[in-house]
Here is the input.
Amino acid sequence: MKLWENARIVPMADAVPGMEVIDDGALLTDGESILAVGPREAVLSQTPLADKQVEEVVDCGGGLVLPGLIDCHTHLVYGGDRSREFEQRLEGVSYQEISRQGGGIRSTVAATRETNQQELAALALDRATRMCANGVTTLEVKSGYGLCVEDEEKMLLAARSLRERLPVSVHTTFLGAHAIPEDFHERSDDYIQLVCEEMLPSVARQGLADSVDAFCENIAFSCQQVRRVFEKARELGMPVRLHADQLTNGGGAALAAEFGALSADHLEYTDEAGVKALAESGTVAVLLPGAFYFLKEKQCPPVELFRKHEVPMALATDYNPGSSPVDSLLLVLNMACVMFGLTPRESVAGVTIHAAKALGLSDRGVLKPGYRADFAVFDVETLAHLCYPIGVAPARLVVQAGCLTRPLHQRP
Ligand code: DI6
Ligand code: FE
Here is the structure.
């Protein structure tokens, strides 16, 4: 057992508004799980200290202790970069226009196909290492830059390899329906057939993905095409999520809800009917302010409607080379407050409790007995102090499954 003391704890569960920080708190962990959390005195009184069962006492330095951060939407496995496209956009060419000309996602597909699994894994490791320093303990990673059986699987294997190399839980998502590959130009239905009949069954057979995603948009796939993918996922028993209503209102939110999706992501153009559908299906709205900022979008997601209908809002980096080259979930907290009007508490809930729900994970995202001992310690006073600076210092300590993983030299 380990005792983590001198901590100001924000459990993100059962909070009384205005009383969410447990000053002089402590956590008791046993292996991968939390045994007790609360005011130090209360935790100590439950602790069999006399039996000398506490093998280690760790001083959290008076820092603010949060559940380990969860980045529930990333595309961090990819080859190449999109700096030339960035310059084109600065000259006034739109993201959609670049996509229609065959660039955009397809240019990253070409670069990713040319990069082997080991190289992809090394690039992803470097990116994920920086994310973990910010307190991330669970990371979702999508495929979607391979667009054929072999290259999609190569991406998923590269993503899964992070599990052995970093102290982070990795949740992988098959995003075969991300873009229409060049060899299927004007044959998008044929490509969807390949996704449903070959790619998805092969990925499922090997257990390479925890969920299935698609890009529902006029520059990608129609609702009808996404429906085919989701029906196949359902047949294979895999949960779904959807890139929905990012650039136009295409009815993506309602489609995601109809299939009981874990999450619907982006949602800038979702209307009230779509929001109600999400509320009824218990689907989490994942907001991605990095992409909104980088594409200079004008329409914010309907945050007021999410509040009104009590749709949980998660936040993620959407880390990718084309629309959201940001690896800092801490910066995303700031962006969500400034651009989308979330409160600091809503923002932090978006990268903890609600992000866990977006991944279908019920063992993390809050600090409670029985939950995973994943937490991060920041040298800040309050949740507002975590959100208001543009670029916060990385986490002082990161604990994953009960083990100190940052700073690494303190690893037992
Ligand atoms: N929406 C996104 O934000 C990423 N994919 C998607 O469907 C962008 C991917 C890219 O531009 O490379
Ligand atoms: Fe995305």
